[in-house]
Specification:
Blueprint lengths: L1 H8 L3 E5 L2 H14 L3 H6 L9 E5 L8 H5 L3 E5 L12 H7 L4 E7 L9 H10 L3 E5 L9 H7 L4 E5 L11 E5 L1 H9 L14 H5 L19 H13 L1
Parallel strand pairs: 2-3, 2-4, 4-5, 5-6
Antiparallel strand pairs: 1-7, 6-7
Helix pairs in contact: 2-8
């Protein structure tokens, strides 16, 4: 499924999610915890670890609750009130980046005065942090399946039950291979013995300190029917 999503979006990898909101939760969790099993086991408790996600004030909406559910602390930037209500300058985003910053969130919505995704991505990548795009309402046009990745997004969450026409409670997350790997690790349940785990070689090579037991993504797992339905709809779209 990941390979097929990657082919459709131009991203390095992909994952079928339980809707775009679940994709945002998993994206935030991946940016916070990476593939550190200790951090994965602790989420949403982020005390003592970088957990800040920057968002422009004009982009705040109810769906960023999904980011906070993973343990992220939202840092707003930009102006409010008169004059310049909702306007953000690129320097304000850059000034907010610090040692606790893990990502910048960038929803696809009409928000006059906000900094563009391409510029946000350039700022983020200068500082080694990721950009999470909420593209739940980003389709159509079909070209937007590739647009946001091309403009520099590291993770893009799409709804599967809207324009794509897949199962109502489905979505897809497209992005960097290392972050999608974290998403997968955070959905494990019973594979707690490295001898029985199909990715045990990652532990033996030292890529992982151990096997995560039960990540925050476990509550967002997708059934085989949802995966098959979403991929079928994506092909048709």
């Amino acid at each position: 499924a990941g390979r097929e999503i990657a082919a459709a979006t131009g991203a390095e990898s992909g994952y079928v999610t339980a809707g775009a909101s679940a994709g945002l939760l998993l994206a935030a969790a991946a940016c916070i915890a990476g593939i550190d099993p200790d951090r994965i086991d602790r989420l949403p408790d982020t005390e003592g670890m970088p957990n800040e996600i920057i968002i422009q004030r004009g982009h705040r909406n109810a769906y960023d609750h999904a980011l906070r559910t993973a343990g992220a602390r939202i840092v707003e930037v930009g102006y409010e009130g008169y004059p310049g209500a909702g306007r953000t300058h690129a320097w304000q985003i850059e000034a907010a980046i610090g040692p606790q910053t893990v990502a910048i969130a960038h929803p696809v919505q009409h928000a006059p005065g906000t900094v563009s995704l391409a510029e946000v991505a350039a700022i983020a990548h200068r500082h080694g942090i990721a950009v999470i795009v909420d593209a739940a309402a980003g389709l159509p046009p079909k070209e937007n399946l590739r647009r946001f990745t091309a403009e520099g997004a590291d993770l893009v969450a799409y709804s599967g039950g809207k324009a794509i026409g897949g199962p109502q409670a489905s979505g897809l997350l497209a992005g960097r291979r290392d972050l999608i790997r974290s998403v997968a690790l955070q959905q494990l349940d019973m594979d707690v013995d490295v001898r029985t785990w199909r990715f045990g070689d990652m532990v033996r090579r030292g890529e992982l300190r151990g096997v995560p037991h039960h990540g925050i993504g476990r509550a967002a797992k997708v059934g085989k029917e949802g995966i098959a339905g979403l991929l079928t709809a994506l092909r048709r779209y």
